[in-house]
Write a sequence for this structure.
DNA sequence: TTATTTAATCGTAATATTACGATAGAATAA
DNA sequence: TTATTCTATCGTAATATTACGATTAAATAA
């Protein structure tokens, strides 16, 4: 089917999965790493850096934008992509909580 | 194409993406949450808990097992699934490093 | 104005994912 | 032995994802 039964799960479970899924592709990891490490946030610079076509990268940027991890600012002919502080913090909190909810003590086998 | 150009990215980028991707489905989030919060780790109990068929859940369990997040122990007729401490720690470390590599100071727009 | 640059979107092909029922195989119970 | 229980796997259908070239649209440059 290829269609996820979203309605069967909680809002929080879906949001969690959505954020993880957005980072579930090496190109999108590379894009985020680029935005963090480089001074530039210009779309064209990302395209030059990554081994994928312009249209493919544009598609990946859109997915990251859809979940809110990044935001795009059109500046004349160019577009500047940046990490969204609020969503990054949301993701950070969510991860910490999720990670720390498991302790080795609770293991059974 | 539906095929990821894995070879164009680093091992670490691919591993990161692979781990995130494994958690990029609400059913798999629910499975992990169940394993963390319940005493049980028996496959059948997971199937009873989640709103999906036995075969679908078996498939999701396999994906989590493939990236190493969980491991399965066959105990007679039943199978016990547990979180793998080592991989969980790897994921935790990876997340922390990734999250903390961004600071709001570095934002540009 | 016309040309150029930049990035989003469209169309499309190949492959992957999600989901289920049916089946199979292994372990235990009767 | 035979029946039952449990879970993995197979086969399949519907949908999603990934990737690219071509096109479009908007802004700037010539």
């Amino acid at each position: 089917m290829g269609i996820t039964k979203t309605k069967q799960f909680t809002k929080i479970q879906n949001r969690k999965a959505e954020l993880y899924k957005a980072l579930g592709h090496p190109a999108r990891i590379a894009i985020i790493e680029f935005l963090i490490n480089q001074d530039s946030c210009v779309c064209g610079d990302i395209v030059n850096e990554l081994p994928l076509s312009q249209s493919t990268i544009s598609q990946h940027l859109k997915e990251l934008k859809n979940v809110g991890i990044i935001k795009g600012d059109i500046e004349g002919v160019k577009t500047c992509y940046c990490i969204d502080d609020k969503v990054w913090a949301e993701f950070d909190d969510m991860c910490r909580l999720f990670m720390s909810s498991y302790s080795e003590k609770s293991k059974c086998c």
In short: The beta strands of chain A are 70-75, 78-83.
